[in-house]
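Review session, final week

We close the course with one last complete record, chosen because it touches almost every idea we covered. It is Coproporphyrinogen III oxidase, putative, a protein from Shewanella piezotolerans with 453 residues. Go through it on your own first, then we will talk.
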Amino acid sequence: MILTPTMTGLASPDPLQHAFKVKSAPHAGRSGSRPINVTPELWQQWWQQPTQAQQRALYIHIPFCRKRCSFCNFFENGANPQRISDYMQQLCQQLMVAANSPFAQSQGFDTVYVGGGTPTDITASEIAMLGEAINRFPLLDNAEVTLEGRLNGFNDDKWHNALEAGFNRFSFGVQSFDTEVRRAAGRFDDKAQLLQRLSTLSQHDSASIVVDLIFGLPGQTMSIWQQDLQAVIDSGVHGVDLYQLIGLGGTRIDRASEKGKILGTDSSEFQADSQTRAQMYAYGADHLESNQWQRLSSCHWRRDARERSVYNSLAKSGIEILPFGAGAGGSIHGHGTMNARSLTDWHQAQQQACTLNNAASLSTPKNVPGMMLTPNPSAKLDAIFKRGLDSGELRLNQLKSQQVNQLRPLFKAWQDHGLAILSNQALTLTLAGRFWNVNMQTGLFEFLAKNPQ
């Protein structure tokens, strides 16, 4: 039996702050898949076959931003209006071709997520066009349809067109309400503007308004973080995600750090370490829950039942996600897919499909450049682990008895280190476990790799 500190965490009188050294990745996972070459004939065949999935989603990627934020390492394309217009025209055309296929029509879609990039940088008419294309798919009656973006530039025309187009959930990347912290991070708008706009949008009775906050931004002290959390409650929004700043390579924060600098505010160069970020998370969880907000996952809370977070919860369950757009990822017939980020290559693939002008090009969306993987043989089991640990409770009856016995030494180590409570029915994460749940997922997959049944 091999157990390492990266699997179990460290013994500590304060596991919230010291169970692991640092959270080094936003997500955890493993794969028994390998890249495959999908021929045009196989690709066409896939879109003519009905799905075997019981639950499905669409993910649509809008890879444009007006500005690169200091914490971002995946900035792709500047928000040039003509480039966006050309992209949206071809994207919506691809969506309409896909929507009419037997594959798309064979099972309804539970949720749609339009991410980026900054999708709200597209025009009001482009939002309407995108909504029309999305509605060609067989959406379930209660489908959650999310538009991601930022509040700056999201005017009333865009808002009303989005509602009329069927969007019923809006996720805004606020990151911090503090004006100085926001400016240092490369964000637009000040605190007063944000609160006023969020309050107005949240009063509409047919949409859920959600914001993202990041804790650990340069210049963001504990006092500022506490004010950020109160601002969420005061704003009237229906849901909030609390994300820890992670030191990813390639960001402006990372490049400044390599030079011994901190991209703080004019009044503070405070930079929260891992222990302080743990305290920030604990304060956020306590403050929201003491104000009767319900925790839906380790990082997501809601004010009321209007916020459902369907896409985020189902995506962790290994459902089928059809990806569209440069840089989009998902799955088709169990095969993992990741479209390449190159906008030029993506456009060339679309134009090639248009010039063919034959039956296949009219009934099958173009297979754009990217990577396709064989089905992961452990996908269903991995989804149980990821969904359970992310929610804070892994129900043991979802696993086979031999799997529980195999994992019991790891689970007991987590319990000994203050990360979880193990019973005959479930493994329940403590507050510390919820903070370190990505590290724990990574450790679990490492344990399974080094201790095969």
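Two points worth writing down before the exam:
The chain has a mean pLDDT of 94.
The radius of gyration is 22 Å.
Good luck, everyone.
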